[in-house]
Amino acid sequence: MTHARVSMTLNGVRIEGSAEPRMHLADFLRLRGDLPSIRVSCEYGVCGCCSLMVDGLVVRGCLLLAVQADGRDVRTLEGMAEQTQDLRAAFVEHNALQCGYCTPAMLLTAHELITVAPDADRDAIRDGLSGNYCRCTGYHAIVDAVEATAQARRTHKGDDHDGR
Amino acid sequence: MAGDDISAFAQLQMTHIGKPLPRPNAERLSRGAARYTPDIDLPGLLHVAFLRSPYAHARIISIDGSSALACEGVIAVLTGADLATIARPFEAKLDHLPKLKAAKQYPMAVDVARHQGEAVAAIVAATRALAEDALDALRVEWEELPAVTDPVRALEADAPLIHAQMPDNLAFIAEIKQGDHAAVEAATQLSVQRDFTFARHTGVPLEPRAIIATFDAIEDRLTVYQSTQTPFQTQAALSAMYGMRESDIRVVAPDVGGSFGVKLHTYADEMALCGIALLLKRPVKFVSDRLESFVSDIHARGQSVTARMDLTADGTLLAMNVDALSGIGPWSVYPRTSVLEGSQVLTMSGCPYQLRAYEGRLRLAFQNKAPMGAYRAVGHPIAMALGELLIESAARQVKMDPVAIRRRNLVPDDSYPFRTLTGLRFEALSHHRCLDRLVELMDYERLRREQKELRQKGVYRGIGLAAVVELTNPGPALYSVGNVRVSAQDGCQIRLEPDGRVTCAISITDQGQGSFAAIGQVIADVAGLNQADIRIIMGDTAHVPYGGGTYGSRGAGVGGEAALRAAAAFRQNMLSIAGALLQTGPDELEMREGAVMSKGSGQRQLDLRAIADVAYFKPDQLPKDLQPLLSSSGHFTQLTDTFVFTNGFQASHLELDIETGFVRLLEHWAVEDCGRIINPLLVGEQMRGGIAQGIGGALLEECVYDESGQLVNGSLVDYLTPSSAIMPDIRIAHIETPTKTSILGAKGAGEAGTAGAPAAVLNAINDAMAPFGAEIFQMPATPERILRAMGRLG
Ligand code: FES
Ligand code: FES
Asked: Is the CB of A101 under 6 A from ligand 2?
């Protein structure tokens, strides 16, 4: 099968590679072997396990072909370590992950959610995360962790403001 | 703590056990730093795709692999017959249940495929995509055979046979009749009998099944990486199938992305993968994709039951009667069989209550659907639903409050040990305490008042309760007595590292429950170490002591006890060395936070690093007659009881839209008594995750087959699982009744959530429908079925 050249900015670094036109982006990244946060489960857009960021938006890595990401800015959890640090700590504190399989995608989605909607309440958080399946936790602890992070970020912002 | 001393354990200063400490390996997982089986790559790794039977029942006339072999990247094409040249057939039997029929099975179907999705041929290629491409070129000539899908039909005299050598399709039958039936008959004033249907559903771990096998011809050793709960079971199965010695097979379970029982079974296709590695002498990998998971992972539940409760007019329970029928697919799943889901319904229905008589019958039928196996809470969700739905139904009839009728009939907390009419021994349960705590936790009275007010406004809310009993910490009675090579024993080894840290190797496994955390907490307290200084190894048969692994909610209870014993011995070993170095009796010393202290003064004397330094590098500083023990081991099998039972109570609060039949879950509560709690965070999350899966079974999840045996909703698009949007908040409270069958006193908590949630939810729906005189006894209770039950659909 013919391969196509693909280049993209991956976690801030320009990379080039080749991919079969039919290969989806999640597989393209997964098969590099250095991005363990990338996983797939359904590969048809339902479970959200493969979520990653393209040009600043969280998208399904299994519904995008690698060639479609040509020239784009792609980020995985590895490249979002700093931005998600507080959220990850909250996940650990609340035990909002068990097997961890859904976790990277859940973190990226939750981070985007509370960035866009910093005031999201529990219901809004539940709605916002509903495209990311977790089979282990029952979601309560995830909602706790996201809610606590959103609140801490709000307070923190308020503090910054007061300090000025 | 010396030896088997429970009271000495109770005196121990606990700074880890019982504390909600974060899991040490959660931080790693939260960075996405995990290695699941699909992530593993090996030099020269080839990929396998299976051709699966498109028919529920068909004879394989011929398989022509020549065109497939000519496809790009294809290395080999193998059929069931090819594997049968090296594999011994296997069959799932339990010696103590001679009535359970078993048929011989091969890694891939040889002459007849008996369910849609059964593997019949394998393509080995350079990539998974190329292997899948070549599947299209594989030519199979089939002769479709009549499929039997309905278990009732399967048991009819003229039904087509699933296994030609058997007289009929009856896989198993068991009956129980105990108690004083004549007296019950005379006293009965009310009988509540209902027909229940529990759909088939499946586990859907987000990481699908995955396995890699590689044969090392130099060492004559097979290494297998497998997403599994029980590496030693795989080792035993491979040994039996391929005639290798168990110790020449290494099975590694890396990070496992959820299992819930799905990855507890020895799947024929996974055994085929290992056979392919042996035949080709090349490393091969199989990762199930989500579509094939639905037709090849085990399914569960799938029972129709007629059940009855007999009572007096004042709501006193007298007897229970259960008649259950289930189709288990064409095979009893190797090696644990497919009998447990049914047999637990037979023995556990109504078990929280005092009964004067019990009668039950269970029939299992072979059929042409995916095999049924052990999925989280095996049998319990059905058994609990039967008793709990009937008792609330009876309460409505005698106009008693559901809490009051339970208080009248639950086995009193002071009457333990208690033996059920079905022969189960309950060491110590706490139904009444749990119910009291639940009523308080959920503010039951307030909810009832609210419910009444809202009904006036046309808002229909329901409150449903469920008592739960869960079987945990199984002893040898579960499998060993049946002569199945599944260990009831677990082992733990602890060794001192040269830098003063310790390494612990233990036979239980972790699929996210937090086994690493729980074991670390036990060892830290019992050995007197810092948890951060303990490195734990699990899931590698080459590096951990032999043991059962994780199943039947036994990790914390059985594995934890093995760890406790190893840790107690390790501490003694360290204190002996310290005593020799400090020229004082070991009894004068104690270990805390990785250091040796004087008992009297509490003064820190030396730490483990210093002990390691002397023992490994300056042993001449030790007395000449001391050859120090620098490692320890502990083993445990729960031998006191057949099982150690736990109990709890759950409640569901929901709102029913009587126009659409939609259910909105408002809140869920659980009070759990799993004995000694090692870490409440872990118990809480096991409960919540289990409840979510129970809710899935109650409202959403169903493997829908058509009459010809085709799964018609086998994708995550059509098969619904709970999302965060439908799940309610789940509040947890604990009651602690430690078991005396171990020093640690911990029981399991992995399955109780799933066991009780369906009953609580269905009871809440029935409570919401009560003003309309409607009830539902079918799971999942979909909007359509609810409307039908209310007579609002034709
Ligand atoms: S793997 Fe992409 S949504 Fe499921
Ligand atoms: S933690 Fe296992 S799927 Fe979410």
From this structure: yes
Which ligand has the minimum distance to the alpha carbon of residue A64?
Answer: 1
Contact B689 A42 (CB under 8 A): no
Domain ranges of chain B: 6-34+489-637, 37-145+208-256+262-296, 299-476+640-789
* Topology agreement, domain B37-145+208-256+262-296 and domain B299-476+640-789: no
Please tell me the number of the ligand nearest to residue A50's CA: 1
**Tens-digit pLDDT profile for residues B35-82:** 999 999 999 999 999 999 999 999 999 999 999 999 999 999 999 999
Question: CA–CA separation, B225 vs B220, rounded Å?
Answer: 17
Rg (CA), chain A: 17
How does DSSP classify residue B586? G
Could you tell me the CA-to-CA distances from B504 to A131, B331, B552, B597 in Å, in that order? Answer: 39, 39, 23, 23
Q: Residue A24: CB within 6 Å of ligand 1?
A: no
Within 8 A of B206 by CB-CB distance, chain A residues are 41, 47, 49, 99, 101-102, 133-135
Q: Could you tell me if residue A104 is inside a domain?
A: yes
CATH class, domain B299-476+640-789, is: alpha beta
- A102 plus A62 within the same structural domain: no
pLDDT for residue A158: 74
Among the bound ligands, the one closest to the CA of B257: 2
Q: Does A13 touch chain B (CB under 8 A)?
A: no
Give contacts of A95 with chain B, Cβ < 8 Å.
22-23, 26, 514, 681-682, 684-685
- Residue for token pair 């030693």: B232
> Ligand 1: distance of its center to the CA of A51 in Å?
7
- Give B256 Cα–ligand 2 centroid separation in angstroms: 10
What CATH number has the domain bearing residue A43?
3.10.20.30
H/E stretch holding A35 = none
Question: How many CB atoms neighbour CB B167 within 10 A?
Answer: 8
Residue A68 sits in which domain range?
A: 4-79
Task: Tell me if A95 and B691 make a contact (CB, 8 A cut-off).
Answer: no
Residue A78 distance to chain B (closest CA, Å)? 7
For residue B552, name the pLDDT band (cuts at 50, 70, 90): confident
Quick one: pLDDT band at residue B551, thresholds 50, 70, 90? confident
CB of A131 sitting under 6 A from ligand 1: no
* Distance between CA atoms of residues B606 and B132, nearest Å: 62
What is the rounded average pLDDT for all residues in chain B? 96
Q: Could you identify the residue written with the tokens 């992950």?
A: A97
pLDDT for B606 beyond 80: yes
Say whether pLDDT at B96 is over 80. yes
Contact A103/B at CB under 8 A: yes
Q: Is the pLDDT assigned to residue A164 strictly greater than 90?
A: no
Q: How far apart are CA B514 and CA B522, in angstroms?
A: 13
CB contact under 8 A, A137 and B41: no
Same domain, A65 and A94: no
Q: Does one domain contain both A55 and A122?
A: no
Asked if B368 reaches chain A (Cβ–Cβ under 8 Å), the answer is: no
CA distance B22 to chain A (A): 6
Q: For the segment B687-742, what is each residue's pLDDT rounded down to a tens digit?
A: 999 999 999 999 999 999 999 999 999 999 999 999 999 999 999 999 999 999 99
So what's the architecture of B6-34+489-637 in CATH? Answer: 2-Layer Sandwich (3.30)
Q: Is residue B380 scored above 70 in pLDDT?
A: yes
In sequence order, which residues have a C-beta less than 8 Å from that of residue B196 and are 6 or more positions away? B303, B304, B305, B306, B307, B382, B385, B386, B389, B777, B778
pTM of the entire structure? 0.97
Amino acid at A148: A
**Residue at which a domain ends, from A54, A79, A104:** A79
Q: Do B206 and A44 touch (CB under 8 A)?
A: no
Q: How far apart are CA B609 and CA B595, in angstroms?
A: 9
